[in-house]
Design goal:
Length: about 650
């Protein structure tokens, strides 16, 4: 562009010199008593205008205009180039995912072939022990079993012929091979999956089949999301403020504006386990993982990023494809200070040891009757509080059986949703905030709970609350981006932290009460020094921040994003972990009080439990609607979630 501008200036300078030369010649030759020259007469006769002679300012203005035009074109092309680069990266990620799945399926195919051969040998050894008549019947039955037509095969897998590969994916596949995608040796002497399936076209054909299945799943996901949106439409209304829950989606206030899961599909296990808890063992071998992926419609497997057993890793395979050797797609990546991403090799004891759960069991369903945007559980683990539209309901979970609320606390306005509710550690005071400018402080020690104070700020809504460890101060994240600090004893506003340029959506405080972490819709996470009242750190992201949690043992901060990623940041070092099991925005996040694990929930209906900090998947639960909120009991024995299908769910953590 700079050479273009230089050429333009040179061309303008030459034109200006010619104009000035002609102007001087005309002044020398023209006089009042001299008739016009032949050239002037010819110009007048031909009607050529003489106003083309420009002054210096006019010439400079034209150059400036052309420069601005070229600059605008440059910025436009730059934005287009960045967009294409982003799309290219996404397509590359999809291609690697298809490759990993195809290899896992190839391993499963060879395993099943070997099983069939062994069963055939066993049958051949057993047949001589049968009577002559039975021997003939068995042999005929075995021959009939081997005669599988293409029609029967297609009917069994639900595919009518092999669908063509989309042109965009085919082009990406060819470009990847042209660039020399590194492919290492396969274990047990197995051929490359593409060759095993018929040369280069084998992988293309498999990718096409996977694409068709994923497209069908995507269509079903759209239909389910539309049905959920219609069922929840009565709760949806437009707010006159920007907030993370008041946008279109599958539940009224909190869809966060993201589409249903795309080509990655739903996580596997839903078909096998139903809508309850899905426990996928990270130690499952590659063939079992591939079978689980196939049974779930070729979705992305929620197993660990890399095999937790080092002796199972394939030597010589590039690090970027190590997870493919066991048929397990990578979902946890370490991001270095220079931005390099590498799959995480989980240690052998990633899911072992004291304080690490084995799974979780659903024990209670609390039918709130409205979308549950906020939940909390008491220190005694006896009571659960669920916040919905205009009220908080109190539940006694100490006894088994069906549940009905033992109390209802009417808060805010009737049509406004509760966004956050927090208990003080003594369990005698509850603070409630939501789509209103006031916070309600409830006295729970009386026979009938009552409001003992209200705190009013200038912001129209509160998105999240946090309580200091000494129970003396409350922090509220406001829709205007401010963090308001309240003195709970005097019910007064102490100070405001200003920095977020859009709504502050989530908050957590360190165990020593000296640092506060906040996330916002301005794509930033900020750390505040509570002693000095100033901002210490700022982390910028490319996505809005919907949830975060600070590890009770220090050092690590987990952040849930609109982009579906969970990022675990080291608070004093530049490295971090990036986790990719969610298929949609991450709506809530909470650390266990031991700090060894944490949970996240999302619009994809998932509750994920992760190992701190590298994100080995401990267990998953698939609920029937978006999971908007979560909490963990202080003894790490219970998990409570609130969802878009108007209920809360209580899980018991099994160690």
């Amino acid at each position: 562009m700079h050479w273009t501008i230089v050429k333009l200036v040179n061309r303008r300078s030459q034109s200006l010199s010619v104009v000035l030369t002609e102007s001087q010649a005309d002044r020398q030759t023209d006089s009042p008593d001299r008739p016009p020259t032949a050239a002037a007469a010819a110009a007048a006769a031909s009607g050529t205008p003489q106003s083309l002679k420009l002054t210096y300012p006019e010439t400079l203005d034209r150059i400036k205009e052309e420069f601005q035009f070229l600059q605008t074109q440059y910025h436009s092309l730059k934005l287009e180039c960045e967009k294409l680069a982003t799309e290219k990266t996404e397509i590359q990620r999809h291609y690697v995912m298809y490759y990993e799945m195809s290899y896992g399926l190839n391993i499963e195919m060879h395993k099943q072939t070997e099983i069939a051969k062994r069963l055939n040998v066993i049958c051949a050894q057993l047949i001589p022990f049968l009577s002559q008549e039975h021997q003939q019947q068995v042999v005929q039955a075995m021959e009939r079993a081997k005669q599988v037509t293409m029609g029967e095969l297609n009917a069994s897998i639900g595919v009518r012929g092999l669908p063509p590969l989309p042109h965009s994916l085919q082009a990406q596949h060819l470009s990847q091979h042209a660039q020399g995608l590194p492919v290492g040796p396969h274990p047990s002497g197995l051929p490359h999956p593409g060759l095993a399936l018929g040369g280069g076209s084998g992988l293309l054909a498999l990718s096409g089949a996977l694409g068709a299945q994923l497209a069908a799943k995507d269509e079903r996901a759209h239909l389910e999301a539309a049905a959920a949106a219609a069922a929840a439409a009565e709760h949806h209304r437009a707010l006159g403020l920007r907030n993370p829950l008041a946008v279109q989606g599958a539940y009224p206030p909190g869809a966060f504006g993201l589409p249903p899961p795309g080509v990655n599909g739903d996580l596997p296990g839903a078909a096998g386990y139903g809508a309850g808890l899905h426990l996928v063992s990270p130690q499952m071998n590659g063939a079992a993982a591939a079978a689980a992926a196939a049974a779930a419609g070729y979705g992305r497997s929620p197993v660990v990023s890399s095999s937790p057993h080092p002796h199972m890793r394939v030597p010589g395979l590039p690090a970027s494809l190590q997870s493919a050797a066991s048929g397990k797609p990578a979902y946890s990546f370490h991001v270095s200070a220079d931005g390099q991403m590498q799959p995480v090799p989980f240690p052998p004891d990633a899911l072992l040891g004291p304080g690490i759960p084995r799974h979780a069991r659903q024990i209670h369903t609390l039918n709130h009757g409205e979308v549950v945007c906020a939940v909390t559980i008491s220190t005694s683990t006896r009571h659960v509080y669920t916040g919905g539209k205009g009220c908080v309901k109190v539940w006694d979970i100490s006894q088994p059986g069906s549940k009905s609320p033992m109390a209802q606390l009417d808060c805010l306005n009737r049509d406004n949703y509760i966004r956050s509710c927090k208990l003080l550690s003594d369990g005698r005071t509850l603070i409630v905030g939501g789509e209103a400018s006031t916070l309600s402080i409830w006295d729970l020690a009386t026979p009938t709970p009552r409001i003992k104070a209200e705190l009013t700020s200038s912001a129209p809504a509160c998105y999240a609350l946090a309580i200091s460890p000494d129970n003396k101060v409350c922090f509220s994240c406001c829709s205007d981006g401010n963090i308001v600090v309240w003195d709970l004893h005097n019910q007064t506003l102490v100070r405001q932290f200003q920095g977020h340029t859009d709504g502050a959506s989530c908050i957590d405080i360190s165990n020593d009460g000296t640092k506060l972490w906040t996330g916002g819709l301005d794509n930033t996470v900020r750390c505040w020094d509570l002693r000095e009242g100033r901002q210490l750190q700022q982390h910028d992201f490319t996505s809005q921040i919907f949830s975060l949690g600070y590890c009770p043992t220090g050092e690590w901060l987990a952040v849930g994003m609109e982009s579906s990623n969970v990022e675990v940041l080291h608070v004093s070092k530049p490295d971090k972990y990036q986790l990719h099991l969610h298929e949609s925005c991450v709506l809530s996040l909470k650390f266990a009080y031991c700090g060894k694990w944490f949970v996240s929930t999302g619009k994809d209906n998932l509750l994920n439990a992760w190992r701190t900090p590298y994100g080995s998947s401990i267990f998953q639960s698939k609920e029937s609607s978006s999971v908007l909120s979560c909490d963990i009991s202080p003894d790490d024995q219970f998990i409570v979630t609130g969802s878009g299908d108007k209920k809360a769910t209580v899980y018991e953590v099994i160690y």
